[in-house]
Amino acid sequence: MWDVQKILRPGVRQTDLSGRFLRRVHELGATSNTIDPIWQIMPPTRASGPWTTHGDLAFPTPTTDRFIRDGDVIWVDSGITFEGYASDFGRTWIAGVSGPGSRPTARQAAQFDRWKSVVDAVLERSKPGATGLELVHAAVSANGGTRPWIEHFYLAHGVGTDSAEMPLIGTDLGEAFDESLVLQPGMVLVLEPVIWDEGAAGYRSEDIVAITDDGWAPLSEHPYDPFGGAS
Questions:
Q1: Whole-model pTM above 0.90?
Q2: What is the CATH number of the domain that holds 209?
Q3: What is d(CA 226, CA 148) in angstroms, rounded to the nearest whole number?
Q4: What CA–CA distance (Å, rounded) separates 143 from 202?
Q5: Domain contains 229
């Protein structure tokens, strides 16, 4: 992803990013690409995006040869396997004439800050014995009472031999299901809240953490550029 981000600028196609990613995946020794690389250009409003049966955002949509334009907000998602184990990657990038690292607006920076506050609230409660429902309540509370994830996704999911596996936290199976999910040492979770800001697209990233004997440990270290900070 470091190498893909280096070529992100207006005039590049989504498929150009896929080509760079898939080549580097195998040059660096990964076994395979398990989630088709997504470089989704997000519309400013739900209505200006694809229609969905659930009325929420359409994500992910297939990558095409669409050109990237100045100011495009791009939700990135992909995954690889290495020696039988899977990983998952998600970030939000902004294309700019200056290339990678184009600075976000104040409104976009506020979206990231809100996303980070949701993640921090979830991590504060991430330890053995905590339930999925506790994490859900923490995320919703940190987001002012509104669910900070997409209707057909979840707040968090496991990752191991598959890129998305149990536990699945924040699904449409309801609170009783979330309460039945109890964190244990050794679990690996992908946290992927979404902050949607109608009229200005939004922010989405994925961070991976491992549950330890007394808390959690970070496994992601890719920075949030151009928003700054590191996992």
A1: yes
A2: 3.90.230.10
A3: 21
A4: 14
A5: no
